[in-house]
Amino acid sequence: MADLDDSSQPREKSARDSYVLHAVEERDIRLIRLWFTDVLGKLKSVAISPAELETALEEGMHFDGSAIDGFSRIQESDVLARPDAATFELLPWADGGSTARMFCNIFRPDGTPFEGDPRHVLRRNLDRAADAGYAFFVAPEMEFFYFADGDTSHAPIPLDAGSYFDLTTSDVASDLRRETISVLEAMGIPVEYSFHEDSPSQHEIDLRYTEALSMADQIMTFRLVVRELALERGHFASFMPKPLAGVQGSGMHLHLSLFDRTAEANAFHANNAEYSLSETGRRFTAGLLHHAREITAVTNQLVNSYKRLVVGYEAPVWVSWAQNNRSALVRVPVTRPDKTSSTRIEFRSPDPSCNPYLAFSVILAAGLRGIEEGYELPDETDANLFEVDADQARRLGVPPLPSSLAEALDEMERSELVHEALGDHIFEWFLRNKRSEWRDYKAHVSQWELDRYLPTW
Amino acid sequence: MIVNERFLVFGEPLPVDLVRFLDMGPYEWAPAKNTMDYDPDAGWTAAVVVVGSESSAAWTFCRDLRRRDVPLSPLLVIIPGDQLGELDERADLFDDFMISPFHPTELDARLKHLLWREGRGVRPELIEYGPLRLNTETYQAQIDGRPLDLTYMEYELLRFLAATPGRVFSREILLNQVWGYEYYGGARTVDVHVRRLRAKLGQEHAHLIQTIRSVGYKLGQARWN
């Protein structure tokens, strides 16, 4: 989608604009939601009527960005949202199918791209990859829970007590999952697999790989579809990384690959290499491992994220890689030798609460740095790291991932790589906002503390 | 766009904006001042008659066209609003009418519809293959009569493939011909869009687009082979 309107100037009506205008009239669309994403990864929407559509396409929509998290500073609060007509899509479940959406790119009033727009940040990073000759492809494994409701005054109530791959008898949740998948497919979001995950009422839907900008858009859409369909059925879906103590949390494993832009070859594949992983693939992986601690604040952005990244729940804790070791941070999945497009790496730390635009940006930057600087991939770690303690890890030469949001922010703040990938605006705002989240958490006295300390002390 | 239409246009005088409209349009046309003023065998396919305040010549012209062995049709009359009464009793002399001064857009639409009604004129272009139907003018897409909601690029890819059923296109050709510009996804983009199209076509029709291993994609079969 590099053809996207890179300027905020009014322009001639393009073929894709008239495609959108026709579709709105023919499908009797009453409302067009213009979507964008704030710095924290929350979906924002401005609804317009068909009558306003043509102007919105040609001139964009002005709005006051100061109300959006991480957008404008007060003195420069006006921004312009320009809908990306290529992303026009009906929302089949909403308002009897009479609503459509488009993603927007955000500009400053002077016409330059707004650096607080996460979609712009990802495009900037993808442009860098394109300059180096690569297209970045991502396939996420989306994990989430279905709960009875979203009431936080009691512990979340799972909809079923099923487990990994279970064909549960209480199939409320499985029906919901099936229905969700058919809506996703109707929206052009192809699903590869779906199943009941390990924890009660935990589900996984794996999306088919696509180019990173579209995938980030798809993840934003996915989270909304899953949540809205659950609400319609009177349930509640959550992408919170660790909603239930004592069982596995929800991750968002990312399968990553680079393709040569001109030849359609998978740059991660080499026929005779170990695990079919090319030198480019090895260096990208080395970059990801080398900078893993710095980018974790972005890929795991909540205080709660770090309660998933603990020993004992199949989440990565140590910075390591291996071919087929699910305790590693980066895994190289086994693929059929004749299917060269499948060679990829799986990055297992991110969780589904992250901002996908920013997460993909820092992951790509880390991998590209590995390629540019020719990082050497360390030896793979065969040991089952789920059973390793800190001393053993030190002997194996695998550093730990940050163990808290505070530690991750310290790593991020020192990272020139993350600073460059995110740009000044988002880098500074993110650190400020997340430090304040951590301060709030630090000052909180939890039930665990009361249970543990009050009787004794 | 090939248009084999020759319009005979009567007007005493011919309004300037009508002349301008006809000159800019896709049709051939010639003016006729009176019933003797044209060659009846010159292959006329339609007539536009402007009725002015001195209306008798115009109506005579209409009657003359209708009396031929093969009456000239369609015949569109343009008439001032205060003379609408003249249409009474003359319903057999015209196929449609408009009030002058006329709006060019209305004239264009009426002419198109008159020609379509007779199975002629510039029809909206339809691409049909089995259960698939694409209207390239309105961008509508249907499968089994059910509307398909596609993004612009999905539509363009489907249109391109459906225009020549059975022909195999490489990813590179599709990328050049359909996208025609730089794209983040590079050549993989095509695979991604095909997968999305198949998802939207639904299981029953997903096979319409076939993968030809290590070559590319095709839609359906050629009509003769």
Keywords:
heterodimer, A: alpha+beta, 9-stranded mixed sheet, 36% helix, 18% strand, disordered N terminus, B: 225 residues, alpha/beta, 5-stranded parallel sheet, 4-stranded antiparallel sheet, 6 helices, elongated
Low-pLDDT runs of 5+ residues of chain A are: 1-7
The profile of the biggest β sheet of chain A is: 9 strands, mixed
Helix content of chain A: 25-40%
What does the overall shape of chain A look like? Answer: globular
| Span between termini of chain B | 29 Å
What integer is the average pLDDT of chain B?
85
Shape of chain B: elongated
Classify the beta-strand content of chain A into a percent band: 15-25%
- The whole-number mean of residue pLDDT values of chain A reads 90
Main structural class of chain A: alpha+beta
Give the SSE order of chain B as H and E letters: EHEEHEEHEEEEHEHHEE
The total of helices of chain B stands at 6
Largest interface (CB within 8 Å) is between: A-B, 43 and 30 residues
Count the E strands of chain B: 12
In the sheet with the most strands of chain B, the strands line up as 2-1-3-4-5
Radius of gyration of chain A (Å) = 22 Å
Whole-Å distance between the termini of chain A? 61 Å
SSE arrangement of chain A, N to C: HEEHEEEEHEHEEEHEEHHHEEEHHHHH
In short:
By secondary structure, chain A is of the alpha+beta class. Chain A is built from 13 helices and 15 strands.
Describe the structure.
The complex is a heterodimer of chains A (457) and B (225). With 457 residues, chain A is an alpha+beta fold. Chain A contains 13 helices and 15 strands. In chain A, helix 6 (279-290) crosses helix 9 (356-373). Chain A is globular, with a radius of gyration of 22 Å. By secondary structure, chain B is α/β, with parallel strands linked by helices. In chain B, the strands form three sheets. Chain B has a five-stranded parallel beta sheet, sandwiched between helices. In chain B, strands 6-7-8-9 form a four-stranded antiparallel beta sheet, covered by helices on one side. Chain B has a three-stranded antiparallel beta sheet with strand order 10-12-11. Chain B starts with 5 loop residues before the first strand and ends in a 6-residue tail after the last strand. The mean pLDDT of chain B is 85. Chain A binds chain B through residues 1-3, 15-16, 18-20, 22-23, 26-27, 85-90, 92, 126, 130, 135-137, 185-186, 188-190, 208-214, 259-264, 341, and chain B through 138-140, 147, 149-155, 171-172, 181-189, 191-192, 195-200.
